[in-house]
Write a structure and sequence with these properties.
Radius of gyration: 19 Å
Distance between the termini: 31 Å
Number of strands: 12
Helix content: 25-40%
Number of helices: 11
Shape: globular
Order of helices and strands: EEEHEHEEEHEHEHEHEHHEHHH
Length: 331
């Protein structure tokens, strides 16, 4: 497994990270034993970066990871944890909380659930509009000084917010959606990260499965699958978007790889400071993703990929409208 460093101040991590959200029901029911086995397989393959959040199924994801990581050398992996998104007992979202006292409270619970004494990268999941970002990251800085957190991260914020946060404490990386069908980060955010020496961990590199090569127009979302509410998966949009996938499939076939491998490799090729996160829930999907990091894309390959999926070609927002307002950048 290749390694990459997250920015100028962040940790060295595997060039491919594992996003654990899907293991806790975000895309429908997941098999716990298979999830644990997938984490083990990722570690054995050299994956060292594991991403989670305290609100993924109200702590379920952190407890699952604690089980999967039990007995492992704590220095052999890096935990990236998001905080601040509020949930209700009916699993509904209740806004964001970036107050310093809340930040420390969230961390205390995450440490207990994960069974660890520190978090490697700690980040607010979204910007709390009622709390200046300086106050939120200032609280994380205090936790870093106290040894409970190693690095400050951000998630889904704009370039101006990145600059404000970085002025308080060096930011290791920004986690944000980045894929062939979600490229808004390229306009202002990505140049800002490069200027400041900040890494990027890219989630949604397969568009929540839409550009994995495994989704079909007639496939419906199962119970509890958030893709049932995603505009890009709705009738009218999904057919158009899958047409882009078929064009990408032609390029992948010529390259001798799968659609998913090509899409992951494209994100990885956007810069040395970018680490794609794959949300594999099974060992089979993980095994498909891993070879993407050995795929070398030439200038001609990149041109063919751009022709198959031009910037802005996807139809539908990447989140339902209620959630788009909380994002630092658009689609």
């Amino acid at each position: 497994m290749q390694m990459r460093t997250l920015g100028s101040t962040g940790p060295a991590v595997s060039a491919l990270g594992l996003g654990a959200m899907g293991m806790s029901g975000a895309y429908g029911e997941a098999d716990r034993a298979e999830s644990v086995a997938t984490v083990h397989a990722a570690l054995e393959a050299g994956v060292t970066l594991i991403d989670t959040a305290d609100f993924y199924a109200m702590g379920h994801n952190e407890l699952l990871l604690a089980e999967a990581l039990r007995g492992r050398d704590r220095d052999s992996y890096r935990l990236s944890v998001k905080f601040g998104m509020l949930r209700g007992p009916g699993h509904e979202f209740g806004g964001h909380d970036g107050r310093p006292a809340a930040v420390k409270n969230f961390l205390a619970y995450s440490l207990a659930r994960l069974g660890t004494d520190h978090i490697d990268i700690y980040r607010p999941a979204r910007l709390d509009p009622a709390v200046p970002i300086e106050e939120t990251v200032g609280a994380v800085k205090e936790l870093i000084d106290a040894g409970y957190v190693r690095h400050l991260g951000l998630s889904e914020v704009d370039a101006a917010t990145v600059r404000r946060a970085h002025a308080v404490h060096p930011v290791a990386d920004l986690q944000i959606e980045y894929s062939l069908i979600s490229r808004a980060v390229e306009a202002e955010v990505l140049p800002t990260l490069r200027e400041l020496g900040i890494g990027l961990t890219a989630y949604g590199v397969l568009g929540r499965g839409l550009i994995s090569g495994h989704w079909s127009a007639g496939r419906g979302a199962s119970a509890g699958d958030s893709r049932g509410f995603s505009p890009r998966f709705t009738s009218g949009n999904v057919e158009h978007n899958l047409g882009l996938v078929e064009a990408l499939r032609t390029v992948a076939a010529a390259k001798g790889c799968t659609v998913a491998q090509l899409a992951i490799a494209w994100v990885a090729a956007r810069g040395e400071g970018i680490v794609p996160l794959v949300g594999a829930r099974t060992r089979e999907r993980l095994a498909e993703a891993l070879p993407a990091m050995r795929l070398s894309l030439t200038a001609d390959d990149l041109a063919e990929i751009e022709k198959a999926v031009p910037p802005g070609a996807a139809r539908g927002d990447r989140y339902p409208s209620a959630f788009m307002t909380g994002l630092g950048v658009g689609n």
